[in-house]
Amino acid sequence: MSANQTSTRRGYSRKVGTLLPKSANKIFRRYGFAEGTLIRQWREIAGPNLSACTLPLKITYGKERGEKISILHLLVEPAAALEVQHQIPVLIEKIKIFYGNQSIARIALIQGAGTIGKAPKPEKEPQSDPKAVKTMETWTKEMKASGLKDSLISLGEQILMRE
Questions:
Q1: How far is the C-alpha of 109 from the C-alpha of 57, rounded, in Å?
Q2: 3 state SS of 82
Q3: Residue 108 neighbours by CB distance under 10 Å
Q4: Which CATH architecture has domain 16-111?
Q5: Where are the domains of the chain?
Q6: Does pTM surpass 0.85?
Q7: Is 107 within 8 Å of 62 (Cβ atoms)?
Q8: How many angstroms separate the CA atoms of 35 and 43, rounded?
Q9: Which of 19, 28, 70, 73 has a CA-to-CA distance to 90 between 20 and 30 Å?
Q10: What confidence score (pLDDT) does residue 82 get?
Q11: Pick the residue with more confidence: 117 or 59?
């Protein structure tokens, strides 16, 4: 670099994670999403079964009976389209709980072959640790046998296994 040229570099590097949200929000707005939380948290909103076969594409706005409504367009695996169609009222309620009452009024399904991805793998249940079981049984030995005692033992096992 010659003496006449100035560097725009500030002498520090930035994490990609700090630059990505600003760029991603521009793309999300282009497809009707005010923010990307619906896409980013789709698995939590829709649940593991529906999110495995659906993907939010865009939100459009229209009028129905004189009122402005928002329509969520979902890409759906063709094999699951009928099941998803029956789950639309439940899915709208889940989105309303997540976003608020006036969020999505309708859902339009768009079938796409093999575009969503693989179904989620079932999580393996961890093997119980005999030492943790024995510890929890000694801590709860004075409790009467009940569902609460069993739940406490199970919770304690999981906590002790993580440690």
A1: 10
A2: helix
A3: 13
A4: 2-Layer Sandwich (3.30)
A5: 16-111, 130-162
A6: no
A7: no
A8: 16
A9: 28
A10: 93
A11: 59
